[in-house]
Batch of 2 targets.
Target 1
Amino acid sequence: MARKTSTDKPSIQTNVVVSGNRPTGDLHLGHLNGALKNWLQLQRKYGCFFFVADWHALTTEYADPSGIHESTKSMVLDWLAVGLDPDTSVIFRQSDVPEHAELHLLFSMIVPVPWLERVPTYKEQQEQLEGRDLSTYGFLGYPLLQAADILVYKGDRVPVGEDQLPHVELTREVARRFNRLYGEVFPEPRGEVVRIAKIPGTDGRKMSKSYGNTVSLGDDPDTVYSKLSKMVTDPRRARRTDPGDPADCPTFKLHEVYCTDAEKAEVTEGCKSASIGCLDCKKIMIKHVVEELEPIRSARLDLEKRKGVVTEVLEAGRDKARKVAASTLSDVRSAVGI
């Protein structure tokens, strides 16, 4: 078995960030506050690889992949409108870089199946997506593909929500096992827990396209107002004169993200004393949401006028990503001896 020696050890750069999103529909406030604002900060400090995870979309959408292409285009436009810079970060489509798949295949030779079965989200998503046939290897193995996504760029920083930490830990285990078998090739990436603002949807549940409760980044002010003005509130406020408690109000969670301390104090007092109605309370928050989304919507409209901009960005990103990924696979093949 070929092994690297200490004199020909592959170089491992530090401060390489890797993250991606599945193209499964329009981006919304949950994506903006859960990932994109953090990505904007990261791209100012580190080398970043941000990818459209279209293969990952197939793990649950394999029966009808017809929407993936348009969702890819829409998502990249949103990324650019928010401020991701293709001159600073590498923005690409996962399926354009076949090295992801090759590394995934090689990892599948050495990773025990129980490692995949114990990932918490495996059973959780099966329960949440009841009614779909998820008894596929692709669904079981998607955390291993995620490991390949990260390690093919020798990523050492992975921004995640707390629920995704087990995926990063699996990636670390995969890197350790590979290095132990074949010599040191990969870093052990660390998951950097992002303080994610939990954004409720208009029905009070987690904001998700599948629930039909989202405020999309491309919504115009009238649409934003229409959606958020109907958002559920504290059920105790059935009438205007009924007092409530912001702690039990889904709408107030958006106030916590978007409003000033003075505004939050004002609506808290008004809610508890019933001196302010729910719609008046919502208007204070809606104003801030509109102010944040309008520049994004305007930038997106301008980008849509530039024919081929998404193709240009993804092709340039593909070339940059493949150069790095090919170098990694050269190290991997040499280490494995194939």
Target 2
Amino acid sequence: MKTFAFKFGILAVSLMMAAGQTDAQQKKYLGDPKYGPDSAAREECAMRMSLYNEFYKQKNYKDAVNDWRKVYQNCPAASKNTFIRGATIYKNLIKAETDNAKKEALIDTLMMIYDQRIVYFKQEGAVLASKGVDLYSYRGKEAAADVYEMLKKSCELEKGETGAGVTTVMMQSAVDQYRAEEVDGAEVISAYELAMATIDLAIASNKQIVAGGDAKKVPAAQKELENLDVDIKNVEALFSESGAATCDALIAIFDAKYDANKDDVEWLKKVTKLLDKAECNSSALFAKSSEALYALEPSAVAARNLARLFYNKKEISKSLEYYSKACELQDDPELKSQYYVESAYIVLGEVKNYPKVRELANNALKANPSMGKAYIVIGLAYASDAQNIGSEKVEHDAAYWAAVDKFTKAKQVDSSCEEEANRHISTYKKYFPNKEEAFMYGIQEGASVTVGGWINEKTTARF
């Protein structure tokens, strides 16, 4: 009885509201064919809209749906809210449904709501984004092909208006198809290109809103930029782990396009980045693309690509020359640090100028104090030159104390280096000075010792 009384009360209130409208308001919908073919149908439509909206506001979706259906069936063109709120109603019904067959039927209806919204109110790109994301959330891999086509078209239509999350789901659906052997690697690469281009446009669009300073719009745009940054990480991870980004696949696709795009800076950046991620930096395509890019637009990324290119060709001096330019041009502290460390390893292995190794590694640490690899390469330089430090064996071997100090520091500042640091510690602590020999030089356990030569650092004696 309480439920019946409540519904009756809502109906009464709704009818009173309809009855209390001004003549102008009544004429507005009574004269509008979107509400129905005649006045009776239009009255019915207005009443049903009022009824379902009251339940909708109370989040009573189960009772809202019957009146909503009447509006959807008889006067769908009356309001875009019929489709927006209808989607919300059905998503909540799907969430509450426990019977699989009934749930699938509700999902089908939700998809139909999106289709009909496009028919009556256009906005195909935005609607396809919602439809594709929802379909993947409900049906996952089994709907990957449909989801991919929806979201691909949405990105192409929406461009910079594409919302965060859409590109991630599009990329996931492309990878799902590739792993199911339904599409080839070229399609995954194409999906990656579209996803990253779309994200770039969306970032530019939201940065423009932030720069505009509209207090009502800026917070949402800032949040969207944070979410788009997550999309970049997700899309790149999906692409890298898909197995589709092989050297052969990338080269086959982009080599044929090189001549037509060799003067396009953005195209060259995209290609060199993809080839680098796939470890194709010894390919002829990477070489000519990198050189063309640097000639058009000298940059840190282009210089680093050339540095790696010349290293692979064993042209060490040219490699280090370009690494120096890359470090100079790079503003991002983490990337600058990475470039310095990469060049330090080349000097360590190829030039064997150990003081220079430390100089480069210290530059890396100035840029990024948490770069554990910088401490590791310094430790390796100390260990590599240990036998040239001092004139006595105990002086040579004391350099290994200093080397292990660096390996220990590496894992303290960067947990990702722990395994490698521990491996080096295990290797080089075997070469610590002999306790008896050290004693002959007045060195005891725990004593402060200065390692000589170019190392010139204090360390602690341990045996």
